[in-house]
Amino acid sequence: LLIEAKDEISSANDMASLNNIRIKYLGKKGLVTLEMKKLKKLPQEEKPKFGAVINKVRNEIEKLLNEKMEEIRKNEKIKKFEKIRVDVTLPGAKRDKGHLHILTKVQRELEDIFISMGFEVVEGPEVEDTWHNFDALNTPEWHPARDAQDSFYFDEKTLLRTHTSPIQIRTMLEKKPPLAIISPGRVFRRDYDSTHLPMFTQMEGLYVDKNVTVRHLKYTLEEMARRVFGESAKVRLKPSFFPFTEPSYEVDVWFQGNWLEILGAGMVDPNVFRNVGYDPETWSGFAFGLGLERIAMVKYGIKDIRDFIRNDVRFLENY
Ligand code: FA5
Q1: Whose alpha carbon is nearest atom 5 of ligand 1?
Q2: Residue 263 Cα, ligand 1 centroid: separation in angstroms?
Q3: In the structure, what pLDDT confidence band is assigned to residue 39 with cuts at 50, 70 and 90?
Q4: How far does Cα 173 stand from its chain's mean position?
Q5: Ligand 1 pocket check for 285: Cβ under 6 Å
Q6: d(Cα 89, Cα 99) in Å, to the nearest integer?
Q7: What global pTM score does this model have?
Q8: What is the pLDDT of residue 15?
Q9: Please, which residues have CB within 8 angstroms of residue 278's CB and are 6 or more apart in sequence?
Q10: Are 121 and 184 in contact (CB under 8 A)?
């Protein structure tokens, strides 16, 4: 009986079958219980011996049942924990980290370069009046750059600035010379193709002092180009025209085998100095306006300027 019970108990693997075994052996009509009942019918002298054996069997089965019960409970607990187990040695789920937009990086890089040369960063409003944006910059009413076809006007006297040059005017009206500033900012024009955006970024530069010459301008731009594009970068000034500079230049940078136009520049026109109350006999200066998207395009080989504003993650992740 005991051997049979042992076998059954050890092959049971859940509480229900264990319970059945308990009933089968120890229940009211269980096999062990039935043996106990036989005790009464035995002759007096055999009773103690038989009683002792049957008791031992009963206790043994009880003990085995309890041990098995413990074991099953433990296993069930383990199974439960196994289900919710976390493997702390697995590599974590990767999250995409954000980063600065390529234009912001280029802007900060240029700011650092000019700051190290002694320039100060100044900003101005994106909504301008025609006086700051044009008149004070020696750009008269009849000038084609003022055409409503090219600019975004709110009314006759108010528009989205078409360049960062009005900040030259605002700065000179506020400060006495000498001064050296740069002004990054968004500007707006009715332009749209693979090299022109209706909203793009310029960085204005203005240096006013005594005896400033084109050589100062060229050196400053060469230094900028070397630091942005590398030691082998060269700068070329081509004659051009802006109403607010005389002489005026378009400036190309030699980079990876090509001359690429990235900015306009020149010597501040005496009329501009007069408009802000500086004496052109005493003061001289240079100014420039960089296209930041153009610089980024040259440096990183970007073909289509519209990529800057498409916000395609595949583009953004490249830089
Ligand atoms: C100007 O805006 C002058 N204010 C620059 C200047 C400042 C000259 C101070 C002299 C003294 P321009 O229109 O050429 O100049 O623009 C300057 C630069 O902005 C260009 O060289 C080009 O790099 C960039 N740019 C012009 N139009 C766009 C456009 N639609 N989209 C992107 N970049 C442009």
Answers
A1: 289
A2: 6
A3: confident
A4: 39
A5: no
A6: 28
A7: 0.74
A8: 87
A9: 172, 177, 208
A10: yes
268 Cα to the center of ligand 1, angstroms:
16
CA distance 218 to 178: 19
Whether residue 103 contacts residue 292, with contact meaning beta carbons closer than 8 Å, is answered with yes
Neighbours of 240 (CB within 10 A): 15
Ligand 1 pocket mutation pick from 242, 246, 284, 298 by most atoms within 8 angstroms of CB: 242
Averaged pLDDT, 133-159: 91
pLDDT(35) > 90: no
Q: What is the mean pLDDT of residues 7-17?
A: 88
The predicted-structure confidence for 89-98, as pLDDT tens digits, reads as follows: 888 888 888 8
**Cis? peptide before 178, omega within 30° of 0:** yes
Instruction: Specify the 3-state DSSP secondary structure of 79.
Output: helix
Residue pointed to by tokens 């009509």? 29
Measured in Å, residue 297 CA sits from the centre of ligand 1 at 14
H-helix or E-strand spanning residue 125: none
pLDDT, tens digit (0-9, with 9 covering 90-100), for 106-142 = 999 999 999 999 999 999 999 999 999 999 999 999 8
The two three-digit tokens of residue 10, written as one number: 């050890």
Contacts by residues 101-106 (CB-CB < 8 Å, ≥ 24 positions apart): 101/316, 102/296, 102/300, 102/308, 102/316, 102/319, 103/201, 103/292, 103/293, 103/296, 103/308, 105/319, 106/292, 106/295, 106/296, 106/299
pLDDT of residue 87 exceeding 90, the answer is: no
List 127's β-bridge partners, or say none: 160
What ipTM was predicted for this assembly? 0.98
Q: What are phi and psi of 122, to 5 degrees?
A: -130, 140
Written as six digits, the tokens of 90 are 């697995």
pLDDT digits (tens, 9 = 90+) for 265-304: 999 999 999 999 999 999 999 999 999 999 999 999 999 9
